[in-house]
Design brief:
The protein is mainly α. It has one domain: Up-down Bundle (A middle domain of Talin 1). Helices cover 80% and strands 3% of the residues. It is built from 10 helices and 4 strands. A two-stranded antiparallel ribbon has the order 1-4. The longest helix is centred in the middle third of the chain and has 29 residues. About 4% of the residues have low confidence.
Length: 248
């Protein structure tokens, strides 16, 4: 959805190295996670270790490629990323980063605090409205953590930082599939419902394949963006319907 909305706002050019490095790995990661989960509708600590180990070569590959960038390209890339960390809106002034470590630390504190408030909030909503946890999870629970990525992607798209839009969207998906699911699986077996087998996994693979095919064209425009957004909401409706009517 993030790529789709960004593409609707302004056509996004996709660099080739992002497709070969990030796009392919995103497709592979999606298929691997889906197949492992579908094996017995359960994610075990063993699966978590596999996911975390699979993330290592991706992280090493990204680090190696970025290290090989020419000094001029690295400088230009850093400037582009820094410009996205701007206080957008009516202030109209750039937020100057003087200490990366300080900003990172403050950001982590806000992220942890926000996650705590958000989690407690959605659990209370589910309890007060007598709505199933799974339905809350695939709607508010899925959208909430993606809002920061969505805001950054939309603002970056408006400013013309195409590579940042694509790389952060793909990177967040890969991180969620391998690292987030990996650590959660280590805490204990995660049981999945039949809805995952019949709807969630196929929808996840289909949406990812469409996104990858669009990336191969080298551009995410308005048409591609609309298709991706419609696929997202279609998958959301398809997954929500059995939960609402208790067909799980």
């Amino acid at each position: 959805m993030i790529l789709g909305l960004a593409g609707i706002i302004r056509p996004i050019s996709v660099p080739k190295h992002v497709v070969t490095r990030d796009g392919i790995f995103m497709l592979v990661a999606t298929i691997v996670v889906a197949l492992i989960a579908l094996e017995d509708l359960k994610l075990t600590p063993r699966d978590g270790i596999i996911f975390l180990l699979l993330f290592v070569p991706y992280a090493v590959n990204v680090y190696a490629q970025e290290k090989q960038l020419a000094l001029r390209e690295r400088k230009k890339e850093v400037e582009s990323i820094s410009k996205t960390l701007v206080m957008f809106g009516k202030l109209g002034n750039q937020f100057v980063i003087k200490s990366g470590a300080m900003i990172f630390g403050v950001g982590c504190l806000f992220l942890i605090a926000g996650s705590e408030f958000f989690t407690n909030g959605i659990l209370e909503i589910a309890s007060n409205l007598n709505i199933s946890d799974s339905f809350i999870g695939i709607t508010l629970g899925a959208l909430g953590p993606s809002l920061p990525n969505l805001v950054v992607a939309l603002q970056a798209s408006k400013k013309g930082f195409d590579e940042l839009v694509v790389s952060q969207s793909i990177g967040s998906n890969i991180f969620t599939l391998f690292v987030t699911l990996g650590f959660l699986s280590l805490l204990g077996p995660i049981s999945l419902t039949n809805v995952f087998q019949t709807i969630t996994a196929p929808a996840l693979i289909i949406v990812t394949m469409f996104a990858f095919l669009f990336l191969l064209t080298g551009k995410i425009g308005k048409f591609e963006g609309i298709v991706l957004v419609l696929l997202y909401f279609g998958a959301l409706v398809a997954e929500s319907t059995p939960t609402l009517f208790g067909w799980t």
